[in-house]
Design goal:
The complex is a heterodimer.
Chain A (H helix, E strand, L loop, with lengths): L1 H25 L8 H19 L3 H30 L3 H27 L12 E4 L2 E4 H23 L1 H11 L1 H6 L4 H24 L9 H15 L4 H21 L5 H15 L11
Antiparallel strand pairs in A: 1-2
Helix pairs in contact in A: 1-5, 1-8, 1-9, 1-10, 2-3, 2-4, 2-8, 2-9, 3-4, 3-8, 5-6, 5-8, 6-8, 9-10, 9-11, 10-11
Chain B lengths: L2 H18 L1 H4 L2 H27 L6 H15 L8 H20 L4 H26 L4 E2 L6 H24 L1 H11 L1 H6 L4 H27 L1 E2 L1 H4 L3 H13 L6 H19 L4 H14 L4 H13 L4
Antiparallel strand pairs in B: 1-2
Helix pairs in contact in B: 3-7, 3-10, 3-12, 3-13, 4-5, 4-6, 4-10, 5-10, 7-8, 7-10, 8-10, 12-13, 12-14
Classes of the chains: A mainly alpha, B mainly alpha.
Chain lengths: 288, 307
């Protein structure tokens, strides 16, 4: 029971991070491998605001999300759009965007190490225990989970019921057809990329409440988000959430029952099973 | 073989001789640099053999390399040293085949993601096994000198070039070029695309493991966090792409300048190596899409007039 709930709490935050990456990959077609660094930047911003300015991390989100939105919009507009224009096929864009975002990822790590040092950073926010179902859980994890659910839920509602959300989903299905029915694909892609970055940075701020981060930890989160997306299926919100919770529970179970050093190995085992039996995602249909 | 083939063979043999004689005329410093460069030449060239024609970006080098060092670390006391690199190569090839069978049937993204975390995953498993059995790191104390390591790497490099040249002339190489251009066409032409890719992926797997096995005595002390350092995979990708994967000699043209630059940066500003790596990736994507090979070919087309 303890494993299930801890896993669920962790999975909720993972789901939010993976949703951000899924927007970027599903709609804007950019496999953003610098996603984890955006998360660390969000986490660091929360840390800095909390220690230097006594700003509550939850309130800090009001600042972090818009800043991340603008930053990601600029990255898409000036770094990635040239690649989109240059690409002859989706495969060529994938290779280019993978290499370019790797470059950004390393550059970000380099800049963050240079600016803030290579040390770990964490802070104590709501570190008191909370009694639930006979066991105790850290309050900050519960708060992070609740916020992740609220933000993820709002995002889902917006994507499903708003006009702009409909545009984004149309681009995700087929960019060529979407532009035929009057969707501005370039604007929608830029919006999705920026929004995805903002969601990821928000996830980073949430993660920083209960997780010790350092400048180079981003790639680990990128890996996890990627595994979740592939497990859940590209562009599938429901699948992403289920996959994130499965990953959270599997990691917690392995960490507690076998060895805390094996969490990535656990994620890989899941990844392997999905690749072998369900390569189109948990709810995906086999492609012909 | 045509006249150009003979000419290229003669040039290659002369360059190989020049490389092999480095310990004779070079200082100890250059021998150390040469060993590092020879390692990257071997790794980047074998990487490009697979990733050049198929456009699949493999980040598995560090995983195979680490496995190779562990083969030496575990076996050097009970087996003669010359058995270990071939043994590591066989293990590397088998593992590459397994990884390839799982991921190469699917699109390139799955492959990149899977190889991205492979080294870290293997590291976690090896660390866990070592914790269970009570071992931590291990010492590899042999009488092998740096000069011998260097010569073994040069010999392995010659083998890789020979293999690349043979693959380029074989049916497999032809099939892979078609796959790289258009996989659907390749399938319709009756090529078993998955099998061809898996077969070729075994080459860098085997070579990287053999390289690790050869270099293990250089490290003296092996532990999982250094043997499976993921940075190695990225360095190899950068050097190969900087040189260009279109030609067999491309990666060499990337390895030499980048190793020198890397060396200079690590000495001057050790904290900025990651920034350099990032900038190098961006430069390649935005300014040098075909690497030095692409630049050279554009130059020849404009001024050479030869077709």
């Amino acid at each position: 029971m303890f494993i299930l709930i801890t896993g669920l709490l962790l999975g909720g935050t993972y789901a939010l991070i993976a949703l951000g990456l899924n927007l970027q990959y599903g709609v804007a077609r950019i496999m953003n491998l610098a996603n984890g660094e955006m998360l660390v930047a969000g986490g660091f911003a929360a840390f800095w605001l909390y220690t230097a300015g006594q700003v509550n991390p939850v309130a800090a989100l009001i600042v972090i999300a818009p800043v991340a939105f603008v930053a990601n919009w600029l990255i898409y507009r000036f770094m990635l759009q040239p690649l989109v224009k240059r690409a002859k096929s989706r495969g060529a864009l994938e290779v280019d965007s993978i290499l370019a975002t790797f470059g950004m990822s390393f550059a970000f790590v380099g800049i963050m190490t240079w600016a803030f040092g290579g040390g770990y950073f964490n802070y104590a926010f709501l570190a008191q225990p909370l009694e639930m179902f006979g066991s105790s859980y850290a309050q900050n994890r519960v708060v992070a989970f609740v916020l992740a659910v609220v933000i993820g839920g709002a995002l889902w509602l917006w994507l499903t019921y708003s006009r702009v959300g409909l545009n984004l989903r149309a681009v995700a299905v087929n960019p060529a057809s979407a532009s035929l029915v009057g969707v501005d694909v370039r604007r929608a892609s830029a919006l999705a990329f920026a929004l995805g970055g903002a969601v990821t940075a928000t996830g980073g701020a949430l993660v920083s409440m209960f997780f010790t981060l350092d400048a180079s930890v981003g790639v680990l989160f990128t890996m996890k988000a990627l595994i979740i997306i592939i497990m859940g299926g590209v562009g599938d919100v429901r699948g992403t959430i289920v996959a994130a919770v499965i990953l959270g529970i599997a990691e917690t179970a392995v960490a507690r029952l076998v060895d805390p050093g094996l969490t990535l190995a656990a994620a890989y085992l899941l990844f392997l099973l999905v690749l072998l039996f369900k390569p189109a995602g948990l709810f995906g249909k086999a492609r012909g | 073989m045509s006249g150009t083939d003979w000419r290229n063979l003669a040039i290659s043999a002369a360059l190989l001789g020049l490389a092999a004689l480095l310990p004779v005329y070079g200082s100890p410093y250059w021998l150390t640099m040469g060993t590092t460069m020879a390692m990257f030449v071997v790794l980047a060239t074998s990487w490009a053999l697979f990733s050049g024609p198929t456009h699949y970006i493999s980040l598995a080098t560090a995983a195979f390399f680490g496995i190779g060092t562990f083969v030496t670390g575990l076996g050097f006391q009970s087996l003669p040293f010359w058995v270990l690199p071939p043994l590591a190569a066989v293990i590397g090839a088998v593992l590459a085949a397994l990884v390839g069978l799982v991921t190469l049937r699917l699109s390139g993204v799955y492959f990149v993601i899977f190889t991205l975390g492979l080294a870290e995953m293997v590291r976690q498993v090896v660390t866990w096994v070592q914790n269970q059995t009570g071992h931590r790191g291990m010492y590899v104390l042999t009488s092998i000198t740096e000069r011998e390591i260097y010569w073994m790497l040069v010999a392995l490099g010659a083998l890789v070039f020979l293999a690349g040249w043979l693959i380029g002339r074989s049916r497999l190489g032809f099939a892979l070029r078609i796959i790289g251009n258009d996989e659907t066409v390749a399938k319709h032409a009756g090529i078993d695309t998955a099998l061809a890719k898996v077969a070729l992926f075994m080459v860098p797997g085997a070579v990287a493991a053999a390289t690790g096995a050869i270099l293990a005595p250089r490290y003296i002390y092996i532990e999982p966090s250094t043997a499976f350092a993921p940075l190695l995979s990225f360095q190899v990708v950068i050097m190969a792409l900087l040189g260009g994967t279109g030609r067999l000699w491309g990666p060499v043209a990337g390895v030499i300048p980048f190793s020198l630059l890397w060396e200079a940066i690590t000495r001057q500003a050790p904290n900025q190596t990651l920034l350099l790596l990032g900038i190098a990736f961006l430069v390649i994507v935005y300014l040098l899409p075909g690497g030095f090979v692409g630049l050279w070919e554009r130059f020849r087309r404009r001024f050479g007039g030869r077709t």
